[in-house]
């Protein structure tokens, strides 16, 4: 790829978890130079922090509107903006940058409502700009390899996908007044869903991504295991994909002893796959009547989709920050290519997964009734 | 324990899988002498096979009725009979032996219908005899240890149990005419349920056993992933226990690459546990805010419930056949003790799990509606 | 196999670990009836314990000489005697029973000295009786399968074997006065070697067994890591096999956190194998340029050597007690067959491994000098 | 840390494995700007490639001498140079940059001979500049945590360390003419040692690093398992540390089925640790008489040495490229701090490990004789 691209970020201020991951992701492979940012809700803190990270004074903005105006006015305007602000603001900021002609990488969830999600899809399409969503687990080399295996028919027709994103980090009832935990189960701040919108949504996207198929219908069972929570901290969702595959998706925050807890199993007519995010460089594969074999990142003959996103040799692990970096690799290629192609998650993926979360909320309230999981515009 | 007990078996003829497991289970620890049997549907084959295994000619019976009559007439009659015949005959044979005053170990499922199950419970109670059901996974030392941990409050109040019994051994669509597979998905032979009644029922029992609690309500989603099957080969069941715990139970026969596939996770207010049957000598335990630690069979200070069922030192594995043997250890102690105490699964457990399977069938047919999982006599 | 064989045991009295393992091993599969024993150094305790286990009064002997005389005089004399007494007595008892025409299974180490070992080999050969040694790890189904793979050339010519038997159960310096630990490091009681003779010897045998090759030369480094020990509690031995393969063998009692710690890796021109006793039902196999695959006990197409020693289906684990039972399966077949064939470990294997231990002791004393590992009679 | 540092690299041209790892390592966390390079033995290719990576034309040098002269002449000269050229050139280039007042990060092995190593140590000391060596595995957060645990006495006095770096990637005898493999076993190109100098040296450093102790004496057994190789492709080295600990170190290139194969076990009076590079975010720990527990990167209360080198939350893996980046984090802090403190590997570590490799070569040639492992200047 020829030439470094210019990159900026809205959000991700001092002390945030997500800011460093994006900065590392953008810079690690040398595709992007970090040149602009509106990093903090407090304008002064944001400006100072951006400059401490090497951003020039005139591109260390006080807020996203100032940044949008400032960058629009420049010849060397940023090629990509990352939106890593609180969830409720994603819609407005993403929409504004797209309409102004910028490529955008938006943190998940892309929007709070299905209607907003549909609006972003329309705006992105009209703008001709990239609108990517940071479902970064889909950018692990071995996840891409699983998708390639499914696509080329290694497993035959897919019958079943079983996914979970279940950890135990919000299991402590004494966290009721801990602000870092409490907001997640408060509808006023988190919206209609707790853990399903926060983590289950990643598993939902991952399943669709690997299958190359979309969820059509679902039935959900939500539970609030820790007393006093209004939103679910544990959920089970049964799925039916458009192509007929069955899905089982479990997500939880009270599974003490599970750390990250994102894993997936794919079963087809001719074989099965198992992968877990905590050991992301191996996939377990078995063909019908054969033995389980371990596919390794970096092995000879791995699919090109995986090989291009791996930096070091077989047996040398690559982890989560470089999965985020892989989204930026995809975006750099897409931007250089002038088009919006690539396997990175797009606005329509952000919309679909958010629509499925809303559908699950409705099903759970209705005693597990089967409901349409698709956004109205895609039915 | 003083003195060997006399043991006989109905079923388990030449070529059966289950017969050798019961013979090993009964004899391995020296508690039972194998002295009587009606081993085969073909009387002559059954008599010959029993004698080849060391049973005296006059106790190598042609069928179970002959065996019942013969043993009743003897001073040295058998102390325990194992019923390991085709599922549809369990009810009749178990009932007859109980009524004649014999202790019985019945293979699972104890009966085909809930009504029959209730009848067995009544008969067993009236007879004062032991009626055990071979949910043998509950007799692994480390399963007993998990139960002991839950009972003594190590995990606090239980919030969630997640169990699966999912393998890939019936995933081949070309097995449609394979008699060893076909009957399992044929209502005429298997009854109302396929995989749920065959394997899911073990996971159901295991969850109740460890929790020391019973399933109150459930909602099920069944799928027949292999074309042409009338009964389910994959099922997801959401549970609510009487004590309030949530349950998630997945069972499948099409999960290619999973071998035995029975595992369980238990989550409480104060900790979590994970155990898998394929590596049964370890339990993973984490306390709230602590680290995951590995509890080993045979370690110093293990609960007495586990210690008494382990034969060799820490690190030396014990497997499935000795879990079956542990049921016989329990039964020998119960018989010697003159009572029916012990942790072995009993008729009421056989009834409850069969009722839950029937409830799941009904729920799945009704779009996942929540239904009462309990047998009428226990509501 | 037709008919039960008669079996007796010397040693294995109340409270011993090894007695129950042998009784279970002999009886589990129904090949042997436990009819005679001299179980304890205290004649009265031995007689009483034998009878409590179902042995008839006239065959519950006070000592091994009484048992030898008693059994010789009977028509229904035992077909096999197991010698499970303190190590220093193995030689005398085994020799006497062989000379009297009995088949013998001797616990390891077969003898204390190389000279005694050679004498047993000569006596066994002259007697025409079976003299087996309880290197029971070699009877795991998957160990037999590895041997079969090597024998049929799946790995090509073997280049390297890496074995360890390293646990942490004697790591506590405060055990200096614990009689269960102390004797192991006291030359007066344990002989020339501590951990190498106790555990390393199993790994030595296992390596030779799987390779179908014998150790020719070795170089050793011994350490006594816990202060005050005269014998080694940690040893590393480098090996050269007669066929040219290189060996690396580590054994330790101070590796805190390892439980049983017996594992082995085999590397040839065309592939590699890894197996660990704590999870004995799987072997990891990779062919040159291929992927690691998991070979499962009980899988379709497993070698006959493994299939005949497995009792339950794939995914259902079988453990250590049934590996001991497999030695008895082998012996029952050998006795019924009238010959001494079979893969069970024999006197010559007991001799070779003891000679290698003595050679390692000498090498370690001589600064790691390379020495001949073979017994004089086999050079 | 205030302000980006300027960084350049010698070597690491197009197609090299190590160049991208260093570029990612230097840039990922934003501590260094990549501003200068002499990337290729072919001056034109090197200049072009550097510019394609964003280096300005006047700092895209044709060779290292030109780069040294060019950078010396600049106000904004580089703060750190990485030497990633063929092994035989490390000495000359590292020495020249140090003498010119630059901080240097040198790839391993630092030099080809012990004498050269001693010279670098002297030059570095005299210069007052940082001379780091890229033993990057020591910069994994959990390796740092193990060192911290040992240092604060969690394991008591260390008795034993067992390390291996054994893979199977040079096991194919048909690679005899493969230039990527062949040179490694050719003394004319590789020097006195094959696998020991290439991979074993990392395990040697790792053991010393975690123990905070140095190898005093050693005894080695080398083997060339693939016919035709003059240098070892498999080696076992027994160690004695200055503080009395015993070491066992195995390294191999013919262990088919092992991928990266770097792992280490540490055993002390009071506990044991196990860690493997392929799953680098977990350490298995057991205290004497306790259970094995899993220490997770990112857990609450992890040592500061580990916490400062971890970027994402518990359960989110970080891999090899970020271990390299951690060396750059250390160096940025050391440079900003104005001193040479920090846990990064230094010239003396490069010297010690190279001296031990040479000692092992001598011992192996001398039948495993015990030899002094220390460089003359440190005896």
Give your account of this protein's structure.
Chain A is an alpha/beta fold and 379 residues long. Chain A folds into two domains: 5-133, Rossmann fold (3-Layer(aba) Sandwich); 138-313 and 349-365, Dihydrodipicolinate Reductase, domain 2, CATH 3.30.360. Helix content of chain A is 34%, strand content 22%. The first copy, chain A, is built from twelve helices and 14 strands. Chain A has helices spanning 18-27, 43-52, 64-72, 90-99, 114-127, 141-151, 179-182, 187-190, 195-211, 304-307, 320-337, 347-365, and strands spanning 5-11, 32-38, 80-84, 103-106, 131-133, 158-166, 215-223, 234-241, 246-252, 262-268, 271-276, 282-287, 292-296, 371-372. In chain A, the strands form two sheets. Chain A has a nine-stranded mixed sheet. In chain A, strands 2-1-3-4-5 form a five-stranded parallel sheet, sandwiched between helices. In chain A, strand 1, helix 1 (18-27) and strand 2 (32-38) form a beta-alpha-beta unit. In chain A, helix 1 crosses helix 11 (320-337) and helix 6 (141-151) crosses helix 9 (195-211). The first copy, chain A, is globular. The two termini of chain A are 38 Å apart. In chain A, 62% of the residues are buried. The model of chain A has no long low-confidence stretch (mean pLDDT 96). The interface between A and B is large, with 45 and 45 residues.
Main traits of this protein?
alpha/beta, 379 residues, Dihydrodipicolinate Reductase, domain 2, 9-stranded mixed beta sheet, Rossmann fold, homotetramer
């Amino acid at each position: 790829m020829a030439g470094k691209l210019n990159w900026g970020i809205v959000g991700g201020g001092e002390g945030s978890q997500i800011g460093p991951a994006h900065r590392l992701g953008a810079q690690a492979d040398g595709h992007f130079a970090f040149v602009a940012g509106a990093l903090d809700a407090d304008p002064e803190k944001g400006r100072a922090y951006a400059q401490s990270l090497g951003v020039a004074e005139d591109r260390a903005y006080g807020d996203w509107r100032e940044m949008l105006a400032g960058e629009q006015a420049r010849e060397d305007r940023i090629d990509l903006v990352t939106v890593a602000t609180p969830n409720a603001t994603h819609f407005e900021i993403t929409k504004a940058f797209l309409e102004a002609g910028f490529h955008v990488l938006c943190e998940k969830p892309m929007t709070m409502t299905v209607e907003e999600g549909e609006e972003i899809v329309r705006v992105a399409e009209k703008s001709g700009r990239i609108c990517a969503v940071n479902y970064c687990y889909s950018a692990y080399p071995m996840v891409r390899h699983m998708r390639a295996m499914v696509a080329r028919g290694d497993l035959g027709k897919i019958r079943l996908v079983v996914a979970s994103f279940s950890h135990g980090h919000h299991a402590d009832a004494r966290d009721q007044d801990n602000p870092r935990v409490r907001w997640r189960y408060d509808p006023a701040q988190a919206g209609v869903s707790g853990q399903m919108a926060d983590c289950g949504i990643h598993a939902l996207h991952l399943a669709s991504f690997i299958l190359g198929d979309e969820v059509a219908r679902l039935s959900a069972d939500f539970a609030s295991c820790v007393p006093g929570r209004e939103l679910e901290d544990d959920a089970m969702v049964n799925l039916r994909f458009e192509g007929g595959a069955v899905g089982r998706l479990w997500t939880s925050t009270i599974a003490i002893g599970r750390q990250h807890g994102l894993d997936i199993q794919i079963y087809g007519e001719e074989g099965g796959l198992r992968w877990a995010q905590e050991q992301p460089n191996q996939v377990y594969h078995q063909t019908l009547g054969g033995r389980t074999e371990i596919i390794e990142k970096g092995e000879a003959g791995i699919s090109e989709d995986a090989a291009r996103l791996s930096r070091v040799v077989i047996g040398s692990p690559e982890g989560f920050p470089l999965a985020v970096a892989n989204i930026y690799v995809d975006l750099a290629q897409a931007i250089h290519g002038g088009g919006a192609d690539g396997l990175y998650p797009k606005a329509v993926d952000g919309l679909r997964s958010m629509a499925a979360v809303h559908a699950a909320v409705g099903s759970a309230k209705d005693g597990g009734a089967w409901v349409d999981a698709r956004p109205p515009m895609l039915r």
